[in-house]
Amino acid sequence: MNGYFQLVTGGRDTGIRVFPPTDGGEPLQYDAVKEYLDDRTISFVPAVLNDALTNADGMLVILNDTPAYPERESYKLTISRDRMQVTAFFYAPSEDGELMTPKEFIQDLAYREITFGIDSEAIQKFFGNREYCKEFVVAKGRKTREGCDARVEYNFKMNLRAKPTMREDGSVDYFNLNMINHVKKGDKLAMLIPEDLGDPGQNIYGEILRPHPVKPTKIKAGKNTKLSEDGLVLYADADGHVTMKEGKVTVSNVIQFENIDVSTGNINYDGSVEVKGTVATGFSVRAGANIIVKGVVEGASLKAGNDIILERGINGMSKGDITAGGNIVTKFIENARVTAKGSITSESIMHSTVSSGTEIRVSGKRGFIAGGRCTATDRIVAKVLGSEMGASTLIEVGADPSIKIRMRELTKAIADSQKRLETITPTIDSVTKRLRSGAALTQDQTRQAQQLMTMHKVLTSQLEKNNAELAEIQQKLADSKEAYVIVEDTAYPGTTIQIGDQTTTLKTQSQYCRFELRDGYVKTGAI
């Protein structure tokens, strides 16, 4: 047990006995005794008290020549800042002092409004085997268990960004990319983990500590999928491949053609389209999911809801137009307009207008961008920019300035819609209340109510749409702050680099460098 002390009173003076610790207990601290004596206005000489503590042999040490009254057994309570724990530090009674009862102690806790988490066992243990000058936890609150938001776990890759591998001969394998999530009917696609509300806590004063609020969610089922009755599991309802389309899990199937030409005409298909040969000039392919072309794409038009893979490439003859809702992977791009919401990966880009919602990566044996305009939100990585012949080449990264204009337009539209809703909602609520009470409306009042309800529905729908678009734009702006351009070999004079709204045109040749926005200017540094 810890070292402790006992006050000695009843005579002509006041003294103290200090007892040493036993069985590895803690020695008595000077401050603990000083605080006790000060609280009871018992005077002492610090050196005398310190000497008594140092020797700690149980012998009587006189503190002063003033008699004092006997002291009962007592204690000091310490309450933690978070009100979750109470500790008691008990003092021995003086030689002629009375002992405290467990009932007194528990009543004192109640007087202090400490009502929850009282450790009766610890209290009984002390009073059954007293140990002084030692801290005992006598009450402890229950911690709040925080919950968590509901979430959806998907059994397929959500973001299939193209990552070609380098072959041993130095060429790039663009086509074994595992970019399609193949599924069979009945496969489990997603599982909803419901929100966990958590458990409330309670402090020593009995105050309830509620967990933070959590958000629910749900699985959004798209085409060719089936949701379980409890809404917790989503299954494939057809063979095909699974993608996330407009926020919904969708399974698409695939159709194949030898070539796209006069024998097929233009193609418009909800699923994926695979072309074993060529897409001829003047023809178009529209696919709700992916487009894969193993031959050359000529001056044709391709548009896919998800990814486009061209195993040979496109020579657009200034007529080719490719648009993907996902990523684009191609051997080369020449004299074409190419746009992707995701990444664009190629071995070369010549005299084309290329735009990516994330990144443009040009690598392989050649890895050059020469002529035309390439734009990406996050980054552009290439071996060579421009050419020795001085081909006019514009490289842009970062958010398009028009996005900021659109954000201001959306913010104003949202504010206007909210204001109009606030104006008409009270009227609609009043009419609804009257109808529920059985009151009749005139023909004009009925017509006016119908018009207001229609307007309310239209405004609410537009508000949801605008809020969703604004959130998407804000995310794009946040993602574009660290936009950069990397040149893994040479950037030739005449190449223009634009990052955000800042532009620089290279006057000299640069090698193995990185262009980024620093201090409001486009600056170059080492990779």
Any overview of this molecule?
The chain is an alpha/beta fold. Among the domains are: 4-140, no CATH class; 402-481. 21% of the residues lie in helices and 36% in strands. It is built from 6 helices and 39 strands. The chain has a 22-stranded mixed beta sheet that branches. Strands 7-11-15-14 form a 4-stranded antiparallel beta sheet, with no helix packed on it. Strands 1-2-3 form a 3-stranded antiparallel beta sheet, covered by helices on one side. A hairpin with a 5-residue loop joins strand 4 (74-79) and strand 5 (85-91). Helix 5 (401-436) runs antiparallel to helix 6. It is elongated and about 120 Å long. The model has no long low-confidence stretch (mean pLDDT 90).
Quick structural gist:
This protein has 527 residues and is α/β, with parallel strands linked by helices. Among the domains are: 4-140, no CATH class; 402-481. α5 packs antiparallel against α6 (443-479).
- Helix count equals 6
Average pLDDT rating: 90
Residues in β-strands, percent: 35-45%
- Number of E strands: 39
Major sheet: size, sense and barrel closure? 22 strands, mixed
Helix-strand category: alpha/beta
Shape: elongated
From the structure provided, what is the oligomeric state, counting identical versus distinct chains? single chain
